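for the writeup, i need someone to sanity check this before i put it in the appendix. the sequnce is what the collaborator sent (i think, or maybe the updated version? ugh). structure was predicted straight from it, no edits. if anything looks off just tell me and ill rerun, i have time this weekend
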Amino acid sequence: MGDWYRDFANSGVGSTLVEQLGLPRPAVLRRHEPGAPLLTGPAVVGTAGEGRLHETVIRVLEDAGVPVQPPAATDGERLGAVLLDATGVTSPADLAAVHEFLAPALRRLGPSGRVLVLAGPPSDAGSPAQAAARQALEGLVRSVAKELRNGATANLLVVPAGAEAAVPGPVRFFLSGRSAYVDGQVVPLTATDVPAGEDAERPLAGKVAVVTGAARGIGASIARVMARDGASVVGVDVPAAGQSLAEVANEIGGTAFQLDITAPDAAQRLIAHLRERHGGVDIVVHNAGITRDKLLVNMDAARWNPVMAVNLQAQLDTTQALLDADGLLRTGARVVCVSSQSGIAGNRGQTNYAASKAGVIGMVRAWAPAFAERGATINAVAPGFIVTEMTATMPFGTREVGSRINSLQQGGLPVDVAETIAWLSQPSAAGVNGQVVRVCGQSFLGA
């Protein structure tokens, strides 16, 4: 499931031709490889106003072995990342400093480079002017992300006072190859305790992770990445997918549990399995989902009801049962739900699917406070156009349009969704709760 146009545009003859014709040239994205450095080049760190996270960011870089150059450096080496602590912005006048730092730094940004801005939340601003300036940073970052080329990305971390301890994990994610297809996103953090001593290569070591819909596609990729990062994976899928599920489980050294998640006793059967085999669970990934597309006026109950049952009601029922099961969800548990770009922007012929995926977002936001009380988190990822066996069957024109209408000019891969889910499952992601992270290459559809 390669990208013929990207491969052609980056070939010797193809690169010349697309340049002559003025066509876009999608970059080969830098994705995570075990043992790879955090960045491929040095970083520069700047401030706008009296920022409070400058030293924290520098420590993250130094701990990862990334050389940090002063903002005034002008040598010819390409930068791996440009980071700006804008938590000190107090008025629109301070935005001039943002421009003065970013403009020359972006000229030096290398292929698959990273731009990361850290700011305070507009809701906590001390004045309308400060709220305006903080909100302005969102528009700036989203626009910068659309201006970057060569696989570079730009994202914004919103850090309230008191949430400083939650910063390092998200910073590492957004700078790394794990975030290759996460672009133009705004991720708010919350103040919380963050466990120390996480293994950079195996951050999920010792964790038990359940992944639904694990027999194929994105679910199988999630299971593989979880196992790579150290988790013991319980793959769940319907009995009809039993053979494929067993193959995935055997490949990663996990276990296969055949289960129709819409069955009345599904949650209790899963709970009994987890108690008996593992004594509890640390991570639950609600990935299972189906589509039954049709225009709303032509859609019958046979298309509407199953989509709601699998995509939304099963997540609600299973999560509630896990919360009610005494001691099953361990301290620091992570629940990650798969939503969709369709749930944010809508999609013609997918009223049932879009409604179910929007419902997942509402569920996550509503449950976040209850999870926080337990020292746990619940979040969602919203994939955009991801290249899978299913998208490969689309008409050529539809597939090409879907894969190109984003800032990275290409479709994502299942591993891109898996990497973001695995990050949200890490102990160091404790400050991310009740959020929806789009894995869409900054799609031009939706927010």
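The first strand starts at residue 43 and ends at 49. The mean pLDDT is 93.
thx in advance!!
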